[in-house]
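Hi there,

I know you've been waiting on this one. I reran it after we fixed the sequence typo, so this is the corrected version. Both the input and the resulting structure follow.
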Amino acid sequence: MYFNVVEALYIEEYKINLKFENGKTGVVNLAEYILQGEIFQPLQSLENFKNFTVTYGTLTWNNGEIDIAPETLYEKATAEKIIFDEAPQKVATL
């Protein structure tokens, strides 16, 4: 899938610069997820948050116990909405 993450670089706070399989790049701010979601509570510590890896096309933490869908990362980082239908996947620019 073209929206898989292939590279990720920590920027600051809860921001990560992402590069996707299709060559697009963007910065994603994950603060809204990290600071509100119970499952993300361990990542509220910036030291834990910085300890991510790219696994199977997405960001993961804690040996894969915590992840965020690559589709979500793509939409947040590029401001492009992913539209799923029965045809091959398409992207519409917002």
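Quick highlight: The chain has one domain: 5-93.

Best,
R. S.
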